[in-house]
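Annotated sample (chain length 282).
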Amino acid sequence: MGQAVPAVQREGIASPAFVAGAYRTAAGPATPLARAFPGLRFYSLAGPIVWRASRLAIHGRYDDAAWSRSSLGILRALEAAGVRLEITGVDHFRTLEGPCVFIGNHMSTLETFVLPTVICASKRVTFVVKRELTNYPVFGHVMRARDPVVVGRSNPRDDLRAVLDGGTERLRAGISIVVFPQTTRTPIFDPAAFNSIGVKLAKKAQVPVVPVALRTDAWGNGRIVKDIGRIDPATAVHIEFGKPLRVQGTGAAEHQRVLDFIRERLRAWGGTVVEGPGPAAE
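Output written by the structure step:
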């Protein structure tokens, strides 16, 4: 599982103030503007953050410290719009020596923006992302600057090879990987649509898996532009990290444990889970 070591805050990295491995938005009333127009409040704060990050990326200055600052800025913008966040289980990976593979459900744009400030405090990290994300105007510069593992989502065999080869290369360089095994962002968790690519990567690189359960539909998916959706302060954001798992044998048992962890946490948070047979075979 890797030797447990004291959690150390990386120098220059911005992150929320974790207490006993958890962070919770402080209680307090939202401003009248945020209560009346939470989306307007959020996007008016988030837009300049993303623009500045893009400028830094274009000039080759978007490093881990800059990423963590802009990510924390997005978290604060959500709170300014009245969204409450609860992040727990952070010590499960902060005290883990070496890199790991984070495997979570993909509910909204929120996790892509907020997870860096949570993880970067103790680990270098990047994501497995769709190619189209790296081609976005403005944000594409940011994503490319973080050296993600890029997949096309049109050929599963090519994507598996890209993740196994590219992910292993980064893990061996000490960079953890965030994998969302679903084919698209959705507020509904369907285990049958959750493939085992993350477990396969962890097995090949011989690193632990850290499950991540996410309820992030407070930032909805937009109808016209998927990344720009409704902000709903009435829906709390929950992010929980599970205990690290060392992959044994085929990895089927660990894959099932990841599924069970996400399913149980989403049920507890009132999320929507598709009931039915187990995960799709590969």
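Annotation: DSSP finds ten helices and ten strands in the chain.
Annotation: Residues 38-58 form the longest helix (21 residues).
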